[in-house]
Design a protein that fits this description.
Elements: E1 2-6, E2 9-11, E3 17-24, E4 32-38, E5 45-50, E6 58-59, E7 67-72, E8 77-82, E9 91-98, E10 112-113, E11 117-121
Parallel strand pairs: 2-11
Antiparallel strand pairs: 1-3, 3-8, 4-5, 4-9, 5-6, 7-8, 9-10, 9-11
Amino acid sequence: VQLQASGGGLVQPGGSLRLSCTASGRTFARNSVAWFRQTPGKERNFVAALRWSNSIPNYADSVKGRFSISRDNAKNTVYLQMNNLKPEDTAVYYCATSIQSTTTPRTSTWTSWGQGTQVTVSS
């Protein structure tokens, strides 16, 4: 499955963005999906994940209460709604998928990755 992330951009602190990640090649309706982010010279960090069954999502502590992950299996798309953005949210955001039923923050579990979309939070 190929993933294409979009929706990044420049936003002021306190603003909102919605990222999208669309799968092609085959449906990922039965896959788990996740978002990670990375800044230059740093490791890729977990943001949020959701199983195919849309059960309880998992969020990094740093984004709880501000970010929301959701999916539309009919559109083969996963979303990351980001509210009350902070400068420390600035990063390249990547979507990922796994055939496992999981919401783990471990990057090694996620086998297919999108190309990333830049999010910059600055005044």
